Each structure stands twice: as C-alpha cells, then as structure tokens.
Write a sequence for this structure.
C-alpha cells in the first residue's frame, strides 16, 4: 500500500511538471508525447506569416493597381488567397507548417498525433474570426491560457494541436552505470519516464538531478546522489546494457 501511494504521489508530481505535453496512444499501441506550443511562440509565428502576407499583398496591389478598374476583381481574389488560402494550403500541404511556424519549429497536427487534413486546416483557420474577437485575438488568447495544451477555440473545434517539432541531432546517451534491476515491477509509462530522465540528466544541474531522482526515493530506497546513480543503473538495465 505504501509503495502504491508513493507511486501515485510521484505520478501526480510528474504530471504537474509535464503538463504542457499531451500523451497519446495510437491505434497501433504506440505512445506519443506531443510537446504543445504555448501562446508566445504561436504569436511570433503568426506575426512572421502576417508580415509575409502583408508583403505579398503590397506587391500584388501595386502590380494590379496599374490596371486601374480592371484590376479590382483580380485584387479581391488575390486578397482572399493571401489571407485565407495561404494558411490553409500551407498547413494541409506542408506538413502542418506555414513559413512562420517552420521558422520557429512549430507544426499543426491532429489531436491524436496524425497529420492535419484539409478539413481540420480549414476549420481552425476559418474560426480565427471568432478567436480574434473582440480585438487582438483576445478570445483566442484567453482560451489558450485556460487550455492545458495552449489551444485556441479554432484548435478545440477542429481537433488540432500546435506542437514543437523535434530538432535533429544525435540521440541522447545514458551515463555509463552498472545495470541494475528495478526493485519492483514498473509500468510501461514509468519505464519510459525513467529512461527519459536518464537521457536528459546530463542537461540538468546536479541539484535538479537529485531533486527529480528523489521523487522515486520511497521505492528506490536511496536519496541524494545515490538515488541518481541507482536510477541510471536501472535505466541501463531496462535498455539491456
């Protein structure tokens, strides 16, 4: 009973730390962790896209303005394409990213981790009209702060999520410790969390490593640097080293 209670407390504290990640299990049984993007990077991406669209509109209006009244019809079509087809087309055809999102390492996906489709891209962008109300994306900003994954109303209705794309690089390594067996049976998500901790430990300060390792001290039977070393050993044991 004490072990189960300690495990529940550790799970609760872990969820509090990782509350910006959405955990999804695909129909194939694959566990995905989706790092949701907050309002600030999304706003910066929108500003970049807005600057690009404003530049396109300025260029197009200048060229079509030379045609006089004959250019009014094409100008209206160009205005519609620049401010509405631009985000929908890019998100549906360019792996969920507009140029602004791509520059900031963001992309739109379905809430279940699948690529975003045409209908979802259309719904989330058309509902910007609601998110913009009453001015300055006020409703969308309030919704994103209230939602645990930073979604605005358009994302909630369309079933989409804006996430950070993983950066390419060398796979993280676990410190060389003698492999150890876990003192109790670990659930799959607990094994994944332990390995993730061991892989990221090198990027943490020693004090932070100890703080996180001691979350498992009730069943690990160790504290301080001993808890850190023991977790690394269990991680190596889970990895078959």
């Amino acid at each position: 009973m004490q072990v189960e209670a300690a495990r529940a407390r550790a799970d609760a504290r872990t969820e509090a730390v990782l509350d910006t990640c959405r955990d999804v299990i695909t129909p194939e049984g694959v566990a995905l962790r989706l790092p949701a993007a907050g309002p600030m990077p999304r706003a910066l991406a929108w500003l970049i896209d807005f600057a690009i669209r404003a530049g396109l509109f300025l260029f197009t209006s200048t060229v079509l303005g030379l045609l006089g009244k004959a250019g009014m019809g094409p100008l209206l079509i160009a205005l519609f394409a620049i401010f509405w087809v631009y985000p929908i087309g890019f998100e549906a055809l360019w792996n969920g990213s507009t140029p602004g999102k791509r520059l900031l390492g963001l992309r739109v996906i379905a809430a279940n981790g699948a690529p975003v489709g045409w209908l979802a891209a259309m719904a989330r962008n058309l509902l910007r009209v609601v998110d913009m109300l009453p001015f300055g994306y006020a409703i969308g900003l309030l919704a994103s702060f209230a939602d645990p994954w930073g979604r605005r109303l358009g994302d909630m209705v369309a079933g989409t999520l804006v996430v950070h794309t993983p950066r390419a690089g060398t796979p993280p390594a676990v410190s060389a410790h003698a492999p150890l067996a876990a003192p109790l049976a670990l659930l799959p998500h607990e094994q994944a969390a332990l390995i993730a901790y061991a892989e990221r430990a090198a990027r943490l300060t020693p004090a932070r490593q100890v703080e996180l390792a001691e979350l498992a001290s009730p069943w690990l039977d160790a504290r301080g640097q001993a808890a850190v070393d023991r977790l690394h050993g269990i991680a190596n044991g889970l990895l078959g080293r």
Summary: Residues 36-164 form one domain. The chain has a mean pLDDT of 82.
